[in-house]
Amino acid sequence: MRVHVVSDVHGRADALARAGDGADVLVCLGDLLLFVDYDDHSQGIFAEMFGAERTTEFIRLRTAGRFDEARRMSAALWSSLGGEPREHVERAVREQYTRIFAAMPTPAYLTYGNVDLPAMWGDHLRDGHHVLDGQTAEIGGLTFGFVGGGLRTRYRTPNEVDDEEFARKVAAVGAVDVLCCHIPPAVPDLLYDVVARRFERGSEATLEAIRATQPRYALFGHVHQPLSARTRIGRTECVNVGHFRGRGRPFALDL
C-alpha cells in the first residue's frame, strides 16, 4: 500500500486535488487555511479583504514582535467592514474551506493544524474523509495515531491548546505503528525554521511517547523550512513531510 502524506496545505487546492494520484490513501496533517502568506503578501484571506499593502504592514508588525499593535490593526480593519467582525472572518474561512475540501481526495484521514478552525470542518467533509484527533485508525494493516493542533504561542493561532490537553491526546493514541501529528516532537533541529530564523514549538509529550513506544514512523509538518527534515529517535524515523503549499507534492510512504 502507498500512503501520501501532506501538511500545511495553506490554500493550495490546485495541488491538493492531485495529491492522492498514485496512492491508496491520503493523510493530511492540517493547516488547510491560508490567512496570511509571508512570502506573497497578495495571497490569503487578509490580503483578499484588505489588500497587499496592509498585509505587508501587518506582517511587518508581527515579524518585529509587535503583536499587540498587529492585533489592534487587524481588529480595526475587520470592524471597518461593518457588522460583526467574526461574521466576516467566518465567511471568508468558509469560502476557503469549501474550495479545499472539494479538492481533498478520498479516502483521506485528516487531523487539524494550529491555524485551522475545527468547528467549521463538519460542514465541508465528504464521504471518505475521516477526521481524527487523539484517535487511531488502521491503514494498510498498521495502526496510525493522530494528534492535531498546536501548543500555545505568542502568535495566538486559532487552534492552540495547553500542554496538558495536547499530552492527553498523545496518551489517548498510545502505542501505534505510525504517529501523525501536526507539530514535531521537541527536537531542536526539527523545530528551527532557517528562513523565518526562529524556533517553533514542539511537543515534549510526543517526544516522550516516541521514546517509550518506538513507532516505525513519526510524521509531522508545521515547520516550513526546517534545519533538519528528518532524524531518528531509536528505531523511529521522524519525518517532516514538507510544506505542501510551497512544494505542491506529497510525501510518499510505502507500507
Automatic annotation (TrEMBL):
It comes from the Bacteria. It holds the Pfam family Metallophos. SUPFAM superfamilies: Metallo-dependent phosphatases. Residues 1-226 form the Calcineurin-like phosphoesterase domain. This is Metallophosphoesterase. It comes from Sphaerisporangium corydalis.
